[in-house]
Amino acid sequence: MYMIVNIMMNSFTSRSMMEGQEIEIIWTIIPAITLIFIALPSLHLLYLTDEIFNAQTSIKIIGHQWYWSYEYSDFNKEFDSFLIPETDLDINSFRLLETDNNLMIPFNTMIKFLITSADVIHSWTIPSLG
């Protein structure tokens, strides 16, 4: 409150700058238009990447605190996949990537992955895809 009163009563304050509605409109409208021009193509691409054309099979992946659960909906099969402890790894194995039950996916088919979590946020990936 002190700062507002001090600025209003100060003789060095330009009275014309106190009511700069034109400049305020300009610096509000121009960034808004810029954001709209960025958002529209991004939303279009977002919806295009979410489309699934003729998925031949679907796999549901559920992340748990220390393991993954997989469900093949077309084959009514499900299993859990746990990390292999470091002491049990072979010399050429990948640490934090080797599991006791690996997910097998069909080659050269469209697959719909439904990835969710049972407790906290998880990141599921296929290492060979980058």
Automatic annotation (TrEMBL):
It is found in: Mitochondrion inner membrane. GO terms for cellular component: mitochondrial inner membrane. It is a multi-pass membrane protein. Binds a copper A center. Pfam families: COX2 (PF00116), COX2_TM (PF02790). Residues 54-130 form the Cytochrome oxidase subunit II copper A binding domain. GO terms for biological process: ATP synthesis coupled electron transport. Keywords: Copper, Electron transport, Magnesium, Membrane, Metal-binding, Mitochondrion, Mitochondrion inner membrane, Respiratory chain, Translocase, Transmembrane, Transmembrane helix, Transport. GO terms for molecular function: copper ion binding; cytochrome-c oxidase activity. Belongs to the cytochrome c oxidase subunit 2 family. Component of the cytochrome c oxidase, the last enzyme in the mitochondrial electron transport chain which drives oxidative phosphorylation. The respiratory chain contains 3 multisubunit complexes succinate dehydrogenase (complex II, CII), ubiquinol-cytochrome c oxidoreductase (cytochrome b-c1 complex, complex III, CIII) and cytochrome c oxidase (complex IV, CIV), that cooperate to transfer electrons derived from NADH and succinate to molecular oxygen, creating an electrochemical gradient over the inner membrane that drives transmembrane transport and the ATP synthase. This is Cytochrome c oxidase subunit 2.
